[in-house]
Amino acid sequence: MSDPQIEKLLIVQDRDVALQKIEQELARIPQERNALEANITAEQANIEAARQALKEKEVERSEIDTEVKAKESAIARFLTQQLEVKKNDEYRALTHQIEQSQQEIAELEEREIELMLEIDTTREAFEAEKAIIEARIQEQTKQIAQLGERENNLKASVDEAKANVEAARSAADENYLGHYDRVKTLCKRPPYVAQIEAHKCGGCHLRVSNEVSSGALLAGEPHFCDQCARIVYA
Ligand SMILES: [Zn+2]
């Protein structure tokens, strides 16, 4: 490299790239954090849904209990009434009602036994699943805390990286720096200052003209790739 100004620009570029990396990493942190938080919310919703399903079964069971008790007191009532009725058909009607209630109680109790088994299985599955999910939530919460730490570290590095860029810029030539800044707005990604090798620009990898190729060897003024407009040197 024959142009000392290019050397200075390369230092500016190195430090710019270092700063960009830190800034890009910083910019990704909110997304990473949102994704983790969304996961945790979804996991908690899953636990809550399972808890709710279990609760519904328990409510159903207690409703059955209430229903059984109501039918038992109805039977007691029918039995008392039977002591008081005089006519045979009234007596038989009450017997029929008693038998019907007993039948209904038997059915309810059968359902209750099924339900108790279901509740046991569901509760076991729920407790096991809940432990796994809670461990995941804990892990994700830890990751969020680590992200916070990384964010703080990166923020501290940004200031240092900016100061480094400024120091390199103040050492560079203003004319070169102006072109460098212009190229930076034109090109989406570094390098902004590219080396020509085997007649190819190190930025766009296209062949440059002979004029650019030989010009790039000369110091004193910046030269540009005729394909991508990057500053080139040889
Ligand atoms: Zn180029």
From TrEMBL:
Keywords: Coiled coil. Residues 19-171 form a coiled coil. Gene3D superfamilies: 1.10.287.1490. The keyword Coiled coil applies. It comes from the Bacteria. The keyword Coiled coil applies. This is C4-type zinc ribbon domain-containing protein.
